Amino acid sequence: MNVTKDIERLRFTITNQNKPNANDATALNGIIDWVERQRSENVRNGHLFAKMFLSVYAGHLQKSNGNYQLSLERCTETLKMPLEEVYVLFHQALNEIHRGNILDFWKDNPYDKTLEAQAIKSLEDNWSLQATTDRLNDLIADMINLYKDA
What we know:
Shape: elongated
Order of helices and strands: HHHHHH
Helix content: over 70%
Number of helices: 6
Structural class: mainly alpha
Number of strands: 0
Strand content: under 5%
Largest sheet: none
């Protein structure tokens, strides 16, 4: 059986106030096994989270000159955000970097309409929110697969 069927079986037995039988015991054991597997997986995945959290926390600590509470607040603010909002913030940061690079380029090179059009097209094609999100999702999946057992 699978966990959904196991739950349905127990729900039926309990809802109808039937006396549990061997099939119900098997269903309960199936649910217990599933929960234990999920917990084990969460612990393994939690190692990656712990490493990244500590790295980000340390960075905030350095920026705040050791203000533990402020650093923790900054970390938890990010953790409370919906993932889509974090993608938007990341995308905005990339665009600021890209705009700064373009301004630096124009300082060193005479203005050229063709180059400007190419820069705008590059931003639209390569640095759109969707393209950035897709690339980040690929990168995150790769990092999880590469380091999940580290």
